[in-house]
Amino acid sequence: MTNYSLFSSAGEVALEDRLHKAFADWLAYRRSTSTRRRSLNEESTEVYREMWNAFVAFCTTRELDLHELTPAELEAFIASRGIVLSGGATRPVTSGIDLTPRYARRFLTLIDWVSTFQAKMDGVAANHAARAVMEKPQYKYANAADKDPLPEFLTEAQSKRLIEYVTRRPSKEEDGKPEKWNVIRNRTAVALMLGAGLTPGDVRNLKTDGVRVAGGKKTGLPWKLSLPGNGNFPARETPLASWAGGQLAFWLKMREEQGIAGDFVFPSRKSGGQWSDTRCYETTREVLEHAGLDNVEGGVFKLRHTFALRQLARGRSEKEVAQWLGLLDINGMARYRRVLSSPAEVV
Fold this sequence. Notes:
By secondary structure, the protein is mostly helical. It is about 50% helix and about 5% strand. It folds into two domains: about 5-145; about 155-340, Intergrase catalytic core (hpI Integrase, Chain A). The relative contact order is 0.11.
């Protein structure tokens, strides 16, 4: 029998390596026993790997081993991925992930699977902290269909209003001075969220060399973005709506003229530092408010959902749109499918 123990005669392995090995060993075991239970396909494997990597980062920071996990620590982890509100609703945090109770339950299930497996391999009692958290109502019934809310999205009228606002060229402010560079930065960031399906995290991490101009239909106009891996999302490419490409071109020209340093497309300061989670999220929400979209419930993620729905309504395949959004699990497209099959107005 294969020895999956994390300990050897050479001594104890470092915590981070130990946690990664626990997942690798569990995965190998699942694959070797696929005839007795449903096997993991490639997409599910990659989703679980991304999830586990996020969990390892959390445990390493807090110096937590699998046998040391407590329900409180696991709930802190879930809170770090997204804030679960009363009644099963969720509000995304500035890390950029829209975490539903169903997805939280999936996280907890994976943690329970791996920790239980590792305990068995080490010959110790299993830690059932994850199971204890899953017994809470917001997670226990998370797989019920009515617990997976439809995504918030902009109506056609709201989209047009926002596009007109974010692509408006600078005008003189009340003091007679032109609008500040960061005002245009903020509007362009929102343009890319609606026109390319970006998350706040994507916006913060986008580099100038990730803007694709060559090969597009219009000379000199950005038409595609190449995004680096970002926490829960893999590296990917996504198309850019022509109106958003025009706004991005305008911003990049202003960025160059004002001598803004660094290689982030949307820096926090002219010196080129990276935009912070909090400021990016807050300022882009302010753009929605200034555009006259009084109801900003659902936040900037409304823009990403609107992009996805628009692409699907135009005949793009779920697999293609999922790749543009950075979704490793195509099952994440189910919510959009429910919207498109309903009488709701979709842009």
